[in-house]
Specification:
This protein is mainly α. The protein contains 12 helices and 2 strands, in the order H-E-E-H-H-H-H-H-H-H-H-H-H-H. The chain starts with 14 loop residues before the first helix and ends in a 16-residue tail after the last helix.
Length: 289
């Protein structure tokens, strides 16, 4: 067997179980989208990068579908299932909190930590530490050694942050999630990827057409589950490389606009705009965690 990650509950779910998890999450998301949009209405709308009013019900419904998918995933041991609910649930709640009360003041880790040093507690800071705590708890449930807990915490929290960093254009975060999650579907963390990707596919058309957006709640939830998938199914080497990559990307995001990088690389620009309407918009990262 390949190098182990020293994680608990390492048993690959079958293809049928993975498919059932993804379909469950997608159906709950699709139904929840309609219901949430009707209930929250105009209160849960925000401007996207083009100034278009779009609903955050998409992200709320996706978070619900992902949590239900992780909770009901067949063939997943109890501790791992609990880790999925903890990782997705904490990311969903704290992301939604930031969506609800967050402003346009402090941005990025540096901005939020600077505000904290000045005695101001921003919603982004609450989300930052809250998701870190949830990720630590989830990592502890699927790990056996302190070193693995540390690496897996970075994977879960770092992935939650990375997907959120990419949620700046219609469909961008969803496409990135599909690329991140696809390699894990045959592995031991496949159920968690399916719990994320099923809901992603359910909302992708609405996201591309600017009917709705993931928001912090939806984007953080997707990323947390994908990070947990890597934590459960990755080898020690792949987990270490992935965690290091996430740290590098997080640090780079403080100084580099991902939108400008994507726009400057033709293959990335083509993929990024695939399925979207004609637009360009200022290539700046207007929203940060």
């Amino acid at each position: 067997m390949r190098a182990r990650s020293a994680s608990r509950g390492r048993r690959s779910p079958g293809a049928a179980a993975v498919l059932a998890t993804g379909v469950t999450g997608a159906v709950v998301t699709w139904i929840g989208y309609r219901g949430t949009e009707r209930i929250l209405g105009e209160r849960w709308r925000r401007e996207n990068f083009q100034g278009v009013q779009v609903t955050l019900a998409e992200g709320t419904a996706l978070s619900l579908g992902a949590c239900v998918g992780a909770a009901c995933a067949p063939g997943v041991p109890g501790r791992a299932r609990l880790a999925g609910v903890l990782a997705a649930g904490s990311a969903a709640v704290l992301g939604a909190y930031d969506d609800a009360v967050g402003g346009r003041g402090a941005r990025g880790f540096r901005g939020h930590l600077k505000a904290l040093r000045e005695g101001r507690l921003t919603s982004g800071t609450v989300k930052l530490f809250g998701i870190a705590a949830g990720s630590l708890g989830a990592a502890a449930l699927v790990s056996t050694r302190p070193r693995d807990v540390a690496v897996n915490t970075i994977l879960i929290a770092g992935s939650a942050n990375l997907v959120n960093l990419l949620d700046l254009r219609p469909g961008r975060a969803a496409k990135a999630a599909l690329l991140m999650g696809a390699p894990t579907l045959p592995g031991e963390g496949a159920a968690f990827s399916a719990a994320a990707l099923g809901p992603v596919l359910a909302v992708l058309p609405a996201d591309l057409h600017e009917d709705g957006m993931l928001g912090d709640g939806g984007a953080n939830t997707i990323g947390a589950l994908l990070g947990l998938s890597y934590a459960v199914g990755g080898t020690s080497r792949t987990r270490a490389v992935s965690a290091a990559s996430l740290v590098v990307l997080t640090v780079a995001s403080e100084a580099v606009s991902f939108s400008r990088v994507i726009d400057a690389v033709p293959p990335l620009r083509w993929l990024d705009r695939l399925g979207r309407g004609a637009e360009a918009g200022p290539e700046t990262d207007a929203r940060r965690p």
